[in-house]
Structures are given as C-alpha cells and as structure tokens.
Amino acid sequence: MRRRSLLALPGALPALLLPGLARAQEAPLVVASFSILGDLVREVAGGAVRLRTIAGPNVDAHSFQPRPSDAEALRGAALVVRNGLGFDGWMDRMVRAAGYRGPVATATDGITPRMMAGHAHNHSHGGGAERRHSHSVGPRQVPDPHAWQDLRHGIHYVRGIATALAAAVPAQAGAIQDAAGRYAARLEALDGWVRAQIAAVPEARRKVITSHDAFGYFGAAYGINFLAPQGVSTEAEPSAGDVARLIRQIRAESITAVFMENMGNPATLQRLAREAGVAVQGRLYADALSEAGGPAASYEAMFRHNVGLLVPAMRGQAA
C-alpha cells in the first residue's frame, strides 16, 4: 500500500496552521478589577478585546481574595484596569505576584478624591508576649474610592479607559474613541435625568440610610445626605455608639429612606431599622453590579435602579 505524505493531503497544511493562526488573530485580553469597571470596558471596547473581570457581579471588592487562576490570567493581558484609591489594592498585589509588566490604567487618576474619616483600628507590637498589646488609633482621613457614584466621574473613567485601550489596541483606536464618545453622551444624558429626579424631592427630605458609606460622591453630586453605620469599607464594623446615634437621628428627623446594599452583612442595618421603627425600602447597588438579567446589570441600569428606589423612599412613599 502506498503511503501518502500528510502534507500532500488536500487541506492538511491549513488545518495544521489553524490553531496558531487562531492564537495570532485572537483579540487582546483586558483584565478589569471589578464588575463596574468591566462594564465600562465592555461599552468602550466592544468586540475589540477579550474581557476578564476579576471580582464579578454581586462580589464585594473590598474583601475580595484573588485565586491563583486570577493571577494567571494577568500573564497574557494587554491591559489591566483598576479603580485605585485603595478600593482594589489586592489588584496591585496580584499584578506583582503574576510578574505582569504591561500597562495598568487607574480609572481614578486625575480625580480629586473626597476625604473622609477612616475607622479606628488596632495593631500589636512585637517583642515577646509580655510586650505584645494592642491599642486604638483614632480616625484618620482616607480617600473615598467610590468615585463612580458621580456620573461626571464615570465619564472621566470612560475617557481614561478609552485612552488606555486605544494605546493597547492601536488598530482599533478610532472605533474605541468613537464608542467612548457615544457612551459618554449617554452618561451625560443620564446625569441630567438623575438631577431632574432628585430635584423633585424637597431638600429637607433628601436623607438616606445605607449599609456602608459608598454614596458620598452621589450625595455630593446630586444633593442627598447619605448616612451609614459602616465606614467606607464593608469590612469596617460599626460601633454601638454609631448605631445608637443613627437610630436617634432617624427618629428625630423622620428619615424614611433606609436601604440595604447588594453585598455585605445586612444584619446591622436590619437591626437599626427595627429599633428605629422604620422599614427597609429595598436594595441599592453600590460596589458591584447585579448578575445579567438583574436590576443593575450595567452601570447605567445601576443608576436607574437606585434612583428609582431613592426618590419615592425620600418622599415617604412606601416601597
């Protein structure tokens, strides 16, 4: 029986080359630290990149612990996008662990952060059991990392992400900048809608209780006073005094807008609402989007969902 060379078979050479060609033509990988940034990258880049979001929907980025597979993903990335201001500090550790040497875009670069009081913390001194003790360090000023809660900052995020993507994928730079311009225009329109909705609520009624202090930028931008038993991080534990003061304030000022968030332990807020004699009005999305098909599956949907709950609650209308 005659033996035929594999290369002589029709179509054999292209078939052998296909895996290599597929890898060569594969879209560059972009890694985003958490779900909101992932959505912004998706809107701006479209199909020009492959997107990997590390802390996905309904995942608390404050307390997130990366897996070895997350660090492995960085090794093939063309771009890493993070929030900064201490929100996703684990991303910096992951970049170092992976030996990643590519570009890192920090979405908050160029934004002057709100400063707020950080919670007291304890630490120990070494030097033997007899010298090991802990003491409290008072509140200190720390940057609030939740800048995306002001849509004007969201537009800043979009422009910075577009610049980084265009540099990482120069062949698609024009399409990326065009998409960013269209998306920014949508966010500008959404910002106007949010302002109009909030303006319809009397200023004296614009007080909201949430689980942790994630809405400071939202409050400053749109004229709402947000109060929270927890600090800027969901990992901070509120003191009994903090909770008691909030309960007194809710009663004294007849605050009706009390909300849980889509992550973290709701027990403190539920106890606070119960003792203050008010009802929890629903669930806001602050640090992460919902799953696909949920009420806040995109950055735009998150704002529409949150405002749709906040406005009637501030007016005193039951959920």
From TrEMBL:
Q: Which GO terms describe its biological process?
A: cell adhesion; metal ion transport
Quote the cellular component terms of the Gene Ontology held in the record: cell envelope
Has UniProt tagged this entry with the keyword Metal-binding? yes
> Which intervals of the chain are annotated as region Disordered?
115-141
* Keyword annotations of the record: Metal-binding, Signal, Transport
Can you name one GO molecular function term for this protein? Answer: metal ion binding
Stored InterPro entries: AdhesinB, Bact_metal-bind_prot9, Lipoprotein_PsaA-like, ZnuA-like
| Compartment annotation | Cell envelope
Q: Which residues form the signal peptide?
A: 1-24
Please verify whether the record's keywords include Signal: yes
Similarity section:
Belongs to the bacterial solute-binding protein 9 family.
Quote the PANTHER family the UniProt record gives: HIGH-AFFINITY ZINC UPTAKE SYSTEM PROTEIN ZNUA-RELATED, METAL-BINDING PROTEIN HI_0362-RELATED
Protein name (Swiss-Prot/TrEMBL)? Zinc ABC transporter solute-binding protein
Gene source species: Falsiroseomonas algicola
Q: What is the lineage of its organism?
A: Bacteria, Pseudomonadati, Pseudomonadota, Alphaproteobacteria, Acetobacterales
